[in-house]
Structure formats: structure tokens, C-alpha cells
Amino acid sequence: MLRYVTTNPGKVREALEYLGEGVEQLEFDYTEIQSSSLERIAAVGAREAFSHAGEPVIVDDAGLFIEDLDGFPGPYSSYVEETLGVERVGRLAREEGTLRASFRCVIAYCDGEPFEATPEPVDRGDRRGQDLAAADRDTATTSDTVDEGAVPVKLFTGAVPGRIVEPRGDGGFGYDPIFEHDGQTFAEMDSEEKNAISHRGRALAKFADFYAER
Length: 214
Ligand code: IMP
Hints:
Elements: E1 2-5, H1 9-19, E2 23-26, H2 38-53, E3 57-66, E4 72-73, H3 77-83, H4 86-95, E5 100-110, E6 122-123, H5 134-139, E7 153-164, E8 179-181, E9 184-185, H6 191-197, H7 199-213
Parallel strand pairs: 1-2, 1-3
Antiparallel strand pairs: 3-4, 3-5, 5-7, 6-7, 7-8, 8-9
Helix pairs in contact: 1-7
Bound molecules: inosinic acid.
């Protein structure tokens, strides 16, 4: 059985739409490392969750990336939502005249086995890997670059482009009211509309194709 490691049952419901019956929620508090890379955060979490669960797991990490603010708040989206708040992030972006943004989601899959080469990257605990963010590569040293015993983790990315607007709509969560895609904010869409185009949906669709073969 595939386990979606999350405290959010809504994510598991969304995953069921792509994966059919074969996925169940696992509530496990894996370590969320501090990193500028969603890939790295999700991969480390998936490796730890697999070692705990002993069966195939997926872990996701997501965030809002405001392009002209160098991707802020990105991997720090939860923290910034709790501290600055969504409306202030929106105001900051609009004051700077920086409207282009995207939501990104990375799904990390681990079942303890190696992976065949496909366009989707694999994290092997190698801090110099091509899938890692430049900031991570820059701080890596030869002594901490490779974890020889690391279990491989396959990564699936989904992104949705949009722009930052004044808050509109009552639905959704997090940054949904200030994120507009195709004329509607995510908070103005019902969950079916949002799931059909969301970053998580796009990552799940890629993962589902891979998993069907696996
Ligand atoms: P998580 O990785 O799914 O927990 O998301 C991290 C943070 O990114 C959340 O606390 C939200 O602030 C933000 N976020 C991720 N996905 C969405 C979304 O679909 N809508 C709004 N905010 C999101």
C-alpha cells in the first residue's frame, strides 16, 4: 500500500483522484529540514518516512514563488504565512510592482529500490546532485556531499503560473486569495476547478503515470 505522509486528509482525497484506491494517509512527523530547495526538503522527508513506515511513501512540499522577489517566500511559505501573513505578502509584492508568481509542488517517492533513468530527477543524498538548488550546491563541501548509504528518492514537480492580486474569494487556504490564474483567484475556484490545474495536481499526475508502471 502506498502511504501519503501528511497531516492533511484533503491532500489524500486529491491524490485518490489520480491514483485510484491504492493510497492511504500516514500521519508521521518527519523532519522538515531548512533548505532553499523544495526538492531537498521533500526528499529528506520521504527517506525518513520510508525508513519509519517500511512501505512505499510519498511526501510533498509546496510553496508560493514570487518571481521578482527572487522566489520569496518559496520554501519558507508556511513560516511567512504565519509571521507576515498572506495580505502583507500580497501588499509587499504589489508595492514592489512585482506581480508574476507561481505555486510549485514537489512530490518525493521512496520505496527503498533504485530507479531507472527518466526525465524526473532522483535524489541520492548527494548534495552536489543536479536536482539541488544552486544555494545548496554552493554551500556543499567535499566531506558532506555524498551520503553513501542513502536510499534513492524520485522527485515529481508541478507548477502553475499566475499573478499576485488584491485578495478575492472565500474558498481555499493559505495564499489562495492573492493568487490569480486565468482571471480567477484560487480562492474563487471550487476545489474541483483548482485541483484540475493546481501545482499539486500537476505533480500528482506525473507521479501517477510513473507509479502505474512501477
Ligand atoms: P505545504 O508544503 O503543502 O504544507 O505548503 C506550504 C505552504 O505553502 C502552506 O502553508 C501554504 O501557505 C502554501 N501553499 C501550498 N500550496 C498552496 C495552495 O494550493 N494554495 C495556497 N497556499 C499554498
